Amino acid sequence: MKIGIVCYPTFGGSGVVATELGKALAKAGHKVHFITYSQPTRLDFFNEHLFYHEVTLRNYPLFEYAPYELALASKMVDVVKYEKLDLLHVHYAIPHASAAYMAKQILKTENIHIPVITTLHGTDITLVGKDPSYAPVVTFSINASDGVTAVSEDLKKDTYEHFKINNGIEVIPNFIDLERFKKQKKEHFKTAICPNGEMLLVHTSNFRKVKRVDDVVRVFHNVRKVVPSKLLLVGDGPERPQIEALCRELGDCDDIRFLGKLEAVEEVLSVADLFIMPSEKESFGLAALEAMACEVPIISTNVGGIPELNINGKTGFLSKVGDVEDMTKNALHILDKDNLPTFKKNALKRATEFDVTKIMPLYEGFYKKVLAKSKELQMN
Ligand code: GMT
Known about the structure:
Layout: E1 2-6, H1 13-27, E2 31-36, E3 50-54, H2 68-83, E4 87-91, H3 93-108, E5 116-120, H4 123-126, H5 135-144, E6 147-150, H6 153-162, E7 170-171, H7 187-193, E8 199-204, H8 213-226, E9 229-234, H9 240-250, E10 256-260, H10 265-269, E11 274-277, H11 286-293, E12 298-301, E13 316-319, H12 324-335, H13 340-352, H14 356-379
Parallel strand pairs: 1-2, 1-4, 2-3, 4-5, 5-6, 6-7, 8-9, 8-11, 9-10, 11-12, 12-13
Helix pairs in contact: 1-14, 2-3, 3-5, 8-9, 8-12, 11-13
Bound molecules: ligand GMT.
């Protein structure tokens, strides 16, 4: 198949999933064309089946806001026509699904029929999408898609609850490349960070409010009173200044390191003992899956799609949002030397259920189903 993938090219979960899916599809022999405004972060190598088309955004003094959605739709039209794509798969509803709808309508006038598949990732529904300034367009473009997928049962439920959806939604969970995300031998790294055999706690995120990074710091503050430990914070975002201030206020700065946006996050995860995800909302929790694949148990909240990944009492624990005391208690239970090896083993075992080799064929099957349906509709 010739597949066009539209996504955000950044470190964010939806962009990572889209890029990794494209890579897996290319490995299976499909031709995959990425359409976005800059080279996706995980697409920095050559592969004969992978192509990248940059959306060119021309500015003009009249525009206070350059119309990205129009430039994206025009680029989709161009790539579908000249690369003879079979389908477009857009990740994150805003503005990709509505831009794809426009491209589809333009192509129709030239007798080109391109099916559009939209994958919902989370904040495009649970946060931004619900906002009245976007909701009508999000609703319309989900309903107008030829196929819709969501990354968890919870996100599917949320979508039906909050929008007037008359389309089916297929749940295809996120996945992990276990060849890349696996525990590597990085003992020297562990010794450098934890010279006295301390436990290593890790959090990775985009440091937005929804991630509640302050709860990570508070849990760590409590844990280190009982078990000598260090905390690594990976990622960056708007909340970072407040988080740094909190570390100072609690007097924990010497044992907390901010690593910023790291490409090789698996190296850090390889030496971690515990991963903390206290998010207020999380449709899947890809960062937790990455940690689990590196044999790291999870302390998380019980919201969104997280319970579909993190099994309470087995791969980690689930707590209510903001319940720092419960998260601390659970963290100490996992870090107990008698419990840690079992939690680590369980985390890895669970992660293997989300191996890309198992999940990518679900997308392939879905593509085939949507293509067949759309061909049938054209014939009638
Ligand atoms: O978590 C974010 O803020 C980034 C966001 C994105 O779209 O890049 O992540 C969402 O999509 C990921 C990939 O499907 C999911 O693993 C995350 O749980 C989801 N984030 C939220 O729902 C907050």
